[in-house]
Design goal:
GO biological process, one term: NADPH regeneration
CATH class of the largest domain: Alpha Beta
Oligomer: single chain
Number of domains: 2
Organism: Lophiotrema nucula
CATH architecture of the largest domain: 2-Layer Sandwich
Protein name: Gfo/Idh/MocA-like oxidoreductase N-terminal domain-containing protein
GO molecular function, one term: nucleotide binding
Helix content: 25-40%
Largest sheet: 8 strands, mixed
Order of helices and strands: EHEHEHEHEHEHEHHHHEEEEEEEHH
Amino acid sequence: MDTKVLRVGIIGCGEVAQVAHIPIFNFLHTKFRTTFLCDVSLGALDHCSRMVQGGTPKTTSDPEELCSSPDVDVVLICNGDEAHVTCGKSALRNDKYCLIEKPLALCYRDIHSLISAEKKSKGKVFVGTMRRYAPAFLEAVQEVKSMGPILYARVRAIIGPNSNFVSQSTTYSRPFEASDFKPEDTAQRSAREKDIMETALRDEFGVAVTEDSKKMLRMLGSLNTHDLSAMREIIGMPKAVLGAYLGLPGIYSVLFQYEDFPVTFESGINAVPTFDAHIEVYGQEKIVRVDYDTPYVKGLPVTMTIREKINSRPGQESFGYSERVVRRTYEDPYTLEMLEFYECVVNGKPIKTSAEDSIQELDLWKMIMQAGEHTYKAK
C-alpha cells in the first residue's frame, strides 16, 4: 500500500533544524517531505534549502505565509521559544497539526491562549519532548509501575556545552549571521521576551524579575523540559518542593516531595564534554534506571538498566543479585518522535505530549523558582 507523505513546513532554520529535523525528514522520505522553510535569516534559509532532499523547498520570512500554504500539511515550529505560541496559533488557524519544540511556552497565559486556539481548529498541538517516546523509557515506565512502593528517585542532567556534541554530529550546522537580522526583527523579539519573562516571573510565579531569574527560567525551559517531563510520566507530579539551590552558571539542585518518598533533581552545564542524563527509581527489591545520551549524535541508544534482588537457587533462602541492560533499538528519540507524530496526524492516534500536558511543566517551574528564589545572586 502507498504511504501518505506529509508535506512539512519548518519555521526556524537554526541549530536543531539543521542537526536533527531536516536530516530526519530526509531519512523518513516515505512519510515526510520538507516543502517550505521559514526564517528571518536569509543565510539560514539558503543553507537549509540545500540540505533538503526530494525537491527544493519554498522559502519565506513570514510564518503566516508558510502556515497558509496549500503545499504544507503539517508545521514544525522550532524557532525561538518567544514565538512558539504565535506560530502555533497561525498553524491552528489554518487547521494544521503542528509539532512545537520544547519549551512550548514559558508562561501560563500563552499556553492557555494556544489551547483556546486548538479547540477551534481541526489541527492539534504535539509538543517535542522526544525522550518520552524512547522504547527504553516506555519500558521503564511499566517496570516502575509493577515494582511496588517507590523509596527514592533521582533525576540528573549535567552536560557539557551543546557545541561539543553538535560539532561532532557530522551535520556541519551553521549559525545565524548577525547581519541577516533586520533591526525590527531584533526589536520585536526583545519586546516579546521581556513581556513573557515579566508575565511568567512577576505575575504568575510571584518571583523577582532579575537577570538571574530570567536565566534560570530559560534553563528550566530549554535543558530541563526533557528531564522534568519524563519524570512526570514515570513517577507522577510531586506534592511540593522542599528546597532548591539555583543559580547560573553552575550546577543547581532541587528536592521534591512525593507522597511517600523524596526525589532529587540535579542539573547544569560545565565544560567537561560528557552527557550525564538519567532517571533512576529505587524500590525495595528493584532499581530501574534510564540513561540518555546526546540527541545530536545520531544512533546513540537510550538504555534501561534493572538491578534487582533474586533467589540464588531454587529452594534456598539466600538471595543473589541480577543486573541487566536493555537496549531496544538504535533508533534515536527524535526519529521515534517523528514516527509518533505521523501516527497522530495520519491515523488519529491520541497525542501524549499535548499542550494541556505542558501546563504541568510550568507548575514544576513555578514550584522550583519559588523555592529557590533566595539563592539568586542579583547583579
